[in-house]
Structure to design on (553 residues):
């Protein structure tokens, strides 16, 4: 068969994660085209606001490239992430939610029903106040500055508002499906920090360091041993579908015993319940190990959780390969233990928010046969984990695929590294909140059918029974009977005897020889003359595609 090359520039593969997956499988990228762009899942299987679908023009392989951000709204329209001035207000462009800013007051409005039960048009209005050492700090100007380029992700423009408070800067970022508020401290505050949001309405912000439902608090000493800038986050996530099985989240979970001197033995920390999490900032610690000042005692273990909405995979998809990719942000090895990192299962209590207790739900059976070493972890690109059979089995065709990230050599092995006082080792990556170009990705390779051809030169009978997603073409040059029975499709061809095609839904029958063909169908019958013995059928959503010809059924 002549190699088919993609000619439409709009359909050429440019996604670096997919390009890496194709190279790893030995697939020529020039023969793979964009098939379905981001779209509402209401269109059915093969369409998703979280994923693009590609197909190989020279085989039955198809590819789903999915991330945690919805890239179109509930109606399939692309997002407009730029802020715009309207009279005395500043308003966001098209998104899954709407934001309005007047001075230092912000309103967020849900534009569709949400997985947590929030209804369309629900909103929250808030006017944050900053207190340091008990005294209120006012912004230098009540009007925000619109930044030309997003300081977190240069891929975005005009999507960040900023207020200058002197000791810190207050920012509001808008990306796909996310409101991301932050307080960026570039110097150490002279006292404890309290932030009061004064929220009103049916929605609530998710606070990184909450006390109650409306305030965040950090003691002054929190800042003393941390590298500046220190960021305190508030956020809200919005989804295009109210079904909780179509949402996703990523971030880290951990168990922390407290301040220095509170550490416990390694095995107890590995088996701990978990008590903290972070799913709202731009980066997360995918794995981390931290020691105490007390000999042979340990304070903290970090683990990661990454969920993907893969419900748009076809029900009859036969998954042959998958790779999970995390864009590295930083790493440190003060323990000098050379930790590694691998992918496992996870089972968080919610599909759209993490909890500290999710720490204990991350599995120990590895989903990738080759952990990434400390030296192999990149801080300047994607780190790709090729999933093994267990990992492929963890991919859902009806809901959310749930993955965990852990250190393999010490955490999973339940064997402590050599103790060094008050230090740690970690590998960090970007979260979905970083946005386009950096968010965690999953590439799934699959096919909808396996083509098998067989023949013989003698007289006899051949028959096969196959389930959906399979196709067999059989024939012989002698006088005999051939029968093919499929659940969804049947083909009989090229014999000089009697051929029967029985199908539950559709039958395609053709004969180049002398004989009789009979069909018993439930819905439809098509006749076709078959030329040659290497015809391939490509089936998708009720469509049968022939080379250079397509038939709707």
């Amino acid at each position: 068969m002549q190699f088919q090359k993609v000619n439409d520039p709009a359909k050429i593969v440019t996604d670096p994660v997919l390009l890496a997956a194709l190279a790893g499988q030995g697939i020529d990228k020039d023969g793979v085209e964009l098939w379905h762009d981001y779209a509402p899942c209401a269109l059915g299987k093969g369409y998703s606001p979280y994923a693009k679908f590609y197909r190989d023009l020279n085989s039955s392989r198809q590819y789903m490239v999915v991330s945690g951000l919805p890239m179109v709204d509930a109606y399939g329209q692309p997002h407009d992430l730029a802020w715009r001035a309207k009279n005395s207000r500043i308003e966001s462009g098209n998104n899954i939610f709407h934001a309005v800013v007047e001075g230092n007051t912000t309103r967020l409005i849900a534009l569709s029903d949400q997985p947590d039960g929030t209804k369309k048009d629900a909103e929250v209005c808030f006017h944050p106040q900053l207190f340091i050492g008990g005294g209120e700090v006012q912004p230098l100007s009540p009007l925000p500055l619109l930044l030309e380029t997003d300081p977190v992700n240069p891929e975005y423009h005009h999507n960040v508002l900023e207020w200058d408070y002197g000791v810190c800067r207050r920012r509001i970022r808008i990306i796909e499906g996310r409101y991301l508020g932050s307080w960026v401290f570039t110097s150490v505050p002279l006292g404890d920090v309290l932030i009061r949001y004064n929220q009103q309405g049916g929605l609530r912000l998710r606070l990184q360091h909450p006390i109650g439902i409306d305030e965040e608090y950090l003691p002054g000493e929190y800042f003393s041993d941390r590298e500046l800038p220190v960021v305190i986050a508030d956020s809200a996530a919005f989804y295009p579908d109210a079904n909780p099985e179509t949402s996703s989240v990523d971030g880290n979970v951990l168990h922390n015993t407290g301040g220095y001197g509170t550490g416990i033995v390694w095995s107890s920390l590995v088996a701990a319940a978990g008590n903290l999490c972070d799913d709202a900032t731009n980066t997360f610690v995918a794995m981390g190990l931290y020691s105490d000042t007390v000999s042979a005692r340990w304070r903290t273990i970090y683990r990661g959780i990454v969920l993907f909405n893969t419900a748009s995979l076809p029900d009859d998809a036969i998954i042959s390969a998958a790779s999970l990719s995390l864009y590295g942000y930083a790493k440190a090895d003060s323990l000098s233990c050379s930790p590694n990192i691998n992918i496992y299962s996870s089972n968080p209590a919610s599909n759209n928010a993490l909890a500290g207790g999710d720490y204990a739900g991350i599995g120990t059976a590895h989903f990738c046969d080759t952990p990434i070493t400390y030296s192999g972890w990149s801080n300047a690109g994607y780190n790709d984990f090729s999933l093994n059979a267990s990992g492929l089995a963890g991919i859902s065709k009806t809901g959310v695929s749930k993955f965990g990230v852990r250190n393999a050599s010490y955490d999973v092995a339940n064997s402590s590294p050599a103790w060094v006082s008050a230090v740690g080792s970690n590998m960090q990556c970007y979260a979905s909140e970083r946005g386009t170009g950096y968010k965690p990705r999953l590439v799934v390779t699959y096919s909808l059918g396996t083509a098998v051809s067989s023949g013989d030169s003698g007289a006899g009978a051949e028959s096969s029974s196959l389930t959906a997603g399979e196709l067999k073409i059989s024939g012989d040059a002698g006088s005999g009977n051939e029968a093919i029975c499929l659940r969804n499709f049947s083909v009989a061809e090229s014999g000089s005897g009697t051929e029967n095609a029985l199908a539950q839904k559709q039958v395609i029958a053709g004969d180049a020889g002398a004989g009789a063909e009979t069909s018993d169908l439930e819905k439809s019958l098509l006749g076709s003359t078959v030329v040659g013995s290497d015809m391939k059928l490509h089936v998708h959503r009720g469509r049968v595609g022939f080379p250079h010809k397509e038939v709707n059924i």
Observations:
- The chain is about 5% helix and 40% strand.
